[in-house]
Amino acid sequence: MSRSSLLALGLSFGLAILPPSAPAWAWGATGHEWVSGIAAEKLPDTLPAFIRTPEAIAEIAAMGRELDRSKGSGKTHDAERDPGHYVDLADDGTVEGILPLANLPVTREEYDTLLRAGGKTQYKAGYLPYSLVDGFQQLRKDFAYWRALTKAIETAATPEERAWFEADRRLREKLTLRDLGVWSHYGGDASQPLHVSVHYNGWGNYPNPEGYTTKKIHAYFEGEFVKRNLSRAAVAAEVGPYQPCGCSIEDKTKALLLASLAQVGPLYTLEKDGGFKRGDQRGVAFATTRLAAGATAVRDMIVMAWEESAETPVGYPMVNVRDIESGKVRTTRELLGAD
Hints:
The protein is mainly α. Helices cover 58% and strands 2% of the residues. The chain has helices spanning 3-12, 29-41, 54-63, 66-69, 75-81, 108-117, 122-125, 128-155, 159-191, 218-229, 232-237, 249-261, 264-272, 281-309, 321-325, 333-337, and strands spanning 94-95, 99-100, 313-314, 319-320. It has a two-stranded antiparallel sheet. It has a two-stranded antiparallel ribbon with strand order 3-4. A hairpin with a 3-residue loop joins strand 1 and strand 2 (99-100). The longest helix is centred in the middle third of the chain and has 33 residues, at 159-191. The radius of gyration is 21 Å and the shape is globular.
């Protein structure tokens, strides 16, 4: 049964009896709060203070779980959004054996077209890479508007204009926190090996020379095991300082997914050897590292979005932020709010 079918089955009878094997929830609430909150804590002080306050960090952590809490909103909502949490990569790194991850097209439309030619769709194979890139691009735009508004406050021609820019920046800060917090969920998803593999809930009907389990292990690993055995401090300790990758968000996303895919075999080996029994330090170390990888990736992508926002266009007609910050172009209400 597909992931979407499993979720729909549970919802049709009420969430209280959702099958425990249903791979619908990514890391549990605990894991997602840790990934998102730690990512925000680890931001360098070169980023705006409004996303680094204790209050902002707490909000980002809470919003990191929001995309799972919204599930069950309705068939239209869930059918469109649930596949954004995963991508079914075969062992060779191709999406469902059809499309190499390295060759992903720019848009979901093109992605779906290529998958349909191979007998699948984006809704069956999942489109997690696009969730990450799409949310990153929105965050980058949010930061660009914040930068433009910050400069506009300095150069406002009248008190009334300055007041308008200040109010608009306050709104932009709220939007940015919301966009960042909700989008950070996908970085957590991408660090969970069972969210990037065709072997997403037991090895499945595939060649299995190692004798890996076919039991439903997804929900237990990411939820109960994490909550009962892991330490937030230990996860945070594995997140080092930001290191620029010198790459695009698309390449950053693919690298994260492939790194998680490489851990699918080790995860199943650990399960086979009893590593996910309560208190087993092998499983604790494995899950801790994967959560830290998610927090690291989210933090790095936030920094990338901020850095790239300096070269991002805003307003209408669009003006590059660098021209606003340099003083080449003065921001006006008409530029940012034209009819």
